[in-house]
């Protein structure tokens, strides 16, 4: 590219305002990345003193069903993105008449519902865990007979960090499991014997350019991500498969922005766990492992700017700081690790307070 | 250090508020670094819509002689720092009764006045350009006769980016030079035949711990920094000398925070050009060359937190984007460089709009 290059058609100008639904740590780090590119940011988040508001130009402190606030928000920004996928459909309906939503509605409606998501993935020819639509005890019993146990009953909507999930170890637990999800529409997922989980953080621009980061290897406990390590232990050809699967999904959704794709590594190949239409906890390592991190990549994509260089220059192990992990802060500050804190006032059990990137050049 | 370590005595707690005098790009990048460590930030800056206000929690938009605003600012923050050294003494007098100022008054009063600074450096046994206190044409003529020409007449106070300086090529220009500085107290600096300029970015904690970054090599034009390159072409023993000089200055001033030290490399050794009691343009490369950048290092120091790892993991060439350099933005975004923009609305000749770090791992 020469010095006479121009920004792509439709690119946001310098100083435009990026709107973000959600004011948690992902919104916070998106705001910081947007500022690095000279953009202003506007957060929509019901909670006051939220992590993203500390580093944003504006904060609409209003509920997601406050139509006036949503309209004002949509009118005062140049593009709308989000840090979580469970945004009420009515809110999106209001916003879309006044601003561009990126990633678009297709990505959101697909990932908001586990059944829709699995049907979509299967339709692309990608493997998922065996799954079944569960509407009552009869359908659950039938699915358990087919898949065997253990299996996991998951609410179709509003699940995150292991919430909205019940593990079923024996078919006799079926009724109790249904009770635990309080009649919410569900899918049953059969057990996938996997050796590890990896995730691909991938970005797509409005013109269809795709950039993927090196897949990281994830370790969870209690349903919450604990560590992501790059490079993963997965052989190079399988890492390449993972990247191609991510690209296939991005293109099918005409996606704009960064997506997180979680994959199980099994003896017979890769199985999709789930997709997240946003920056992802398992991509935090990119902040210290790449020139362009996932947050800046997302901002570049939704602004219609050229995607950045996602080449990994260092080996990284990302570790989440959850609840009492904060007691380790003084020791971590004295190490050669990169510490990232979210500005949350109270330490609570299970609460993500920050993360650390341990780097080996 | 073990996992049972605690923060040093006097360290600011999680969520404390950092006050910063000045709302330009240095304040902006300090705010972002503070947020990464979970701190809130409060900017004091007379101009509205200033770069730092975009990423800060609070913005006192008031003049530096607004005593009420200064007192409110000082009372609402846990420590006060600054992004420029020419803060009116009266403002500091008001603030210091209500908050800790870091770096302290000694660093400020020394660096605010070129004559005081040069006397201080000479007193430490460090070499400076030959200099003389200039009060009138007689003292100027005498100094020019001693140093020869070319020489540079500099106002003792309020100089930056080449402002407040007049080059004197012949003794006959003495009267015109004095007229150009409009009777401001001045020093005359004799010519130093240097092969290049390097700068050391160094940090000191309240307990006296010192961390220095690898000295970078600077290229100026029209009195404004254009590029900084690490590693420099200067041999390792001289780089070590530079680091030791920085440490000597930090300790003598009982300095807390990050300092920039500019040095001329001459055939007979290193000569101090000037010191800046703050993060420095020539340290921007650390954002993409080190785990802990100069901005985070400054925040760690003034918060009384352990200093971070300043080891350089990559080779970097930092290039300022000044005025029309912004025309290169599309091409730069398409390269593998790291782009940092300051959110300034208008492109003006000579205005620092951003910078770019070109990285080789």
From TrEMBL, chains A, B:
Pathway: Purine metabolism; IMP biosynthesis via de novo pathway; 5-amino-1-(5-phospho-D-ribosyl)imidazole-4-carboxylate from 5-amino-1-(5-phospho-D-ribosyl)imidazole (N5-CAIR route): step 1/2. It catalyses: 5-amino-1-(5-phospho-beta-D-ribosyl)imidazole + hydrogencarbonate + ATP = 5-carboxyamino-1-(5-phospho-D-ribosyl)imidazole + ADP + phosphate + 2 H(+). It comes from the Bacteria. Coiled coil: none annotated. Its EC number is 6.3.4.18. ATP binds at residues 114, 154, 159-165, 189-192, 197, 220, 273-274. Gene3D superfamilies: 3.40.50.20, ATP-grasp fold, A domain (3.30.1490.20), ATP-grasp fold, B domain (3.30.470.20). SUPFAM superfamilies: Glutathione synthetase ATP-binding domain-like, PreATP-grasp domain, Rudiment single hybrid motif. The keyword ATP-binding applies. Keywords: ATP-binding, Ligase, Nucleotide-binding, Purine biosynthesis. One of its GO terms (molecular function) is metal ion binding. Pfam families: ATP-grasp (PF02222), PurK_C (PF17769), RS_preATP-grasp-like (PF22660). Residues 118-303 form the ATP-grasp domain. InterPro entries: ATP-grasp, ATP-grasp_carboxylate-amine, ATP_grasp_subdomain_1, PreATP-grasp_dom_sf, PurK, PurK_C, PurT/PurK_preATP-grasp, Rudment_hybrid_motif. GO terms for cellular component: cytosol. GO terms for biological process: 'de novo' IMP biosynthetic process. Catalyzes the ATP-dependent conversion of 5-aminoimidazole ribonucleotide (AIR) and HCO(3)- to N5-carboxyaminoimidazole ribonucleotide (N5-CAIR). Catalyzes the ATP-dependent conversion of 5-aminoimidazole ribonucleotide (AIR) and HCO(3)(-) to N5-carboxyaminoimidazole ribonucleotide (N5-CAIR). PANTHER family: PHOSPHORIBOSYLAMINOIMIDAZOLE CARBOXYLASE, PURINE BIOSYNTHESIS PROTEIN 6/7, PUR6/7. Homodimer. Belongs to the PurK/PurT family. This is N5-carboxyaminoimidazole ribonucleotide synthase.
């Amino acid at each position: 590219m020469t010095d006479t290059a121009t920004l792509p058609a439709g690119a946001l100008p310098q100083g435009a305002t990026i709107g973000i639904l959600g004011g948690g740590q992902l919104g916070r780090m998106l705001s910081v990345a947007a500022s690095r590119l000279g953009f202003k940011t506007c957060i929509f988040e019901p909670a006051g003193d939220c992590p993203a508001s500390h580093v944003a130009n504006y904060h609409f402190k209003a509920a997601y069903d406050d139509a006036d606030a949503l309209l004002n928000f949509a009118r005062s920004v140049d593009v709308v993105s989000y840090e979580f996928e469970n945004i009420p459909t009515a809110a999106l309906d209001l916003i879309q008449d006044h601003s561009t939503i990126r990633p678009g509605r297709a990505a959101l409606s697909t990932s908001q519902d586990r059944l829709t998501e699995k049907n979509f993935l299967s339709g692309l020819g990608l493997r998922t865990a065996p799954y079944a639509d569960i509407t009552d005890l009869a359908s659950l019993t039938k699915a358990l007979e087919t898949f065997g146990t253990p299996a996991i009953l998951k609410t179709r909507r509003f699940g995150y960090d292991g919430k909205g999930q019940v593990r079923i170890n024996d078919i006799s637990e079926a009724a109790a499991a249904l009770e635990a999800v309080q009649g919410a529409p569900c899918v049953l997922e059969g057990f996938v014997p996997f050796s590890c989980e990896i995730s691909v953080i991938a970005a797509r621009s409005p013109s269809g350019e795709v950039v993927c980061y090196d897949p990281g290897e994830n370790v969870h406990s209690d349903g919450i991500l604990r560590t992501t390590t790059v490079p993963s232990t997965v052989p190079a050809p399988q890492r390449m498969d993972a990247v191609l699967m991510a690209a296939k999904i991005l293109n099918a959704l005409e996606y704009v922005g960064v997506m997180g794709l979680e994959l199980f590594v099994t003896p017979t190949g890769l199985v999709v766990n789930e997709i997240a239409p946003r920056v992802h906890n398992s991509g935090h390592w990119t902040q210290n492992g790449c020139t362009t991190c996932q947050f800046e990549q997302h901002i570049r994509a939704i602004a219609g700017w050229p995607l950045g260089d996602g080449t990994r220059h260092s080996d990284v192990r990302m570790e989440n700081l959850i609840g009492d992990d904060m007691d380790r802060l003084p020791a971590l500050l004295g190490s050669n690790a990169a510490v990232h804190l979210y500005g949350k006032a109270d330490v609570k059990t299970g609460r993500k307070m920050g993360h650390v990137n341990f780097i080996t050049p």
